[in-house]
Amino acid sequence: MDQDFPLKILPVAQLEGHEDRAWHVAWNPTKPILTSCSADKNVRLYTYSITPNPDAPERQSLKFAHITTIPTGHAKTVRALAWSPSGNTLATASFDSNIGVWAQEGDGDGDGGAFNPAGEWECMSLLEGHETECKSVAYSSSGNLLASCSRDKTVWIWEVHPDHDFECMGVLMEHTQDVKAVAWHPIEEILASASYDDTIKLYIDDPQEDWYCFQTLSGHASTVWSLAFSPDGRFLASSSDDTTIRIWERVQEHKWEHIDTLEGHERSVYSISWGSGKPIGSDDAGSLGWLASTGGDGIINIWELGFGPSSKDPSRKTLVYRIVAKISNAHDIHDINSVVWCPRKGFEDLFATAGDDGVVKVWKVVPS
Amino acid sequence: MSAEVFNPNPTVFAPLKAKKTAHSYAKPNSIWLDDVDRADEDEGDFDQSDDPEAIDQDEIFGTSTGSLRVHYIELTMTLEQLAVVSAPQITFDPKYPDRITVEFTPTVPHCGMSTFIGLSIRVRLLRSLPQRFKVDIRVKPGSHQSEHALNKQLNDKERVAAALENPALVEVLEQCLSTAGRTASEEEA
Asked: Which family does it belong to (chain B) (predicted)?
């Protein structure tokens, strides 16, 4: 048991089945589906449903069930996953240097027929271009753009066309080392990338020209592993091998500044996820939601973040934060590679993790 | 692997006599003592072991890292013979006994095989140590011109995982690891 926190993290489901390290999890944004990927080259799909408890509505239980496994055909590890905002298309990033695009027949653009996620998932497109391992993939909030990154130091931006057709809009060669992660701003078409070169780069599209890097964020002392924008898009969080999380604030349209550093881990922070959370008290003015963080120390921290009057100078606003829940050895002795909040309405207190034990776990944050 | 000779005249050190008889904890059923016989079999067995048996630096050194071989010029030598690794270079985190740092010393500051040597040490420990151990591998401070880059690469789990999916690299690695577990005195016999 960890010390006193206002919230606690309860296990909801333990999903086994991968035969090797599980690297990443992704929630379908529109349907009750959770997916995971692994060094075993498979993608596993789970559904979940609520069993209501009429006597105590707050104690409804969630049931997860494995529905299908996609044997991706990737020649190497499947490192990362991304669902399109429509929830119809799943992208896979693999160490075989390719991005796979998966969907179900007849579920492309229209709403043809009943949705049956247990049916066959087909590889609709294979995006080739990266020279070495792909490490991350992400859809923009509109679903019109897809970004991918690789050990080849590049970030590629793809435009999504009908019928699973993709057009490369730009190859960004800004980083001097492996690019570990890409993340899109939740509202605008701003892309962020994190690298083994210890920096974060921010990119936008110049309507007259091409995509370009408008800012480099430096400060981390080692590899930047993961990125997460705040749900309102005013802040960006980054996590690093230096064991810290940095928070960057958008101070001008094209200018971001470091405002604080969160210290709560002992080893590399491999993954962070920023969700809207569920306010603890009645006072949620200025709340920025909950940030979940995890990594090589096997600890999951839930940070409550807000933007309010500074304690030193109440006339100034500043980032306020605290750890509201924590769990150690969440995957027993193993590293945790990924933590992701469920993006669906009503499930803001639910998140999933993937570990070196090959297990995917689902957790719920509840009052202590 | 490049055929370039980084250190044409390496100093070869006499291996220390095996100290394992001195260890009172080295019971006949030690997970380490039968390592030799089983080295060619499924080493995955060890991964299943959650036996919280005490393991010290000599034990990790003796059966895991010191006996790793590198092909150097025409010679094949162990890391112990080259004094690349030694027992005192294996240290335990005082707060967490399952967190280990293994330091190694390249024979020359421009040794181009250092990444490979570090990777072979990592893989050997991945295969032989119980899973609960978290291992950091570092070159001895000041011993290599690319010290920072080496340390960073050897401790990036994603890069290590990708390297182990590279068939050409794994083939060379397996050659290096094939004699692991044998002590120097057994080699001479």
From this structure: Belongs to the MIP18 family.
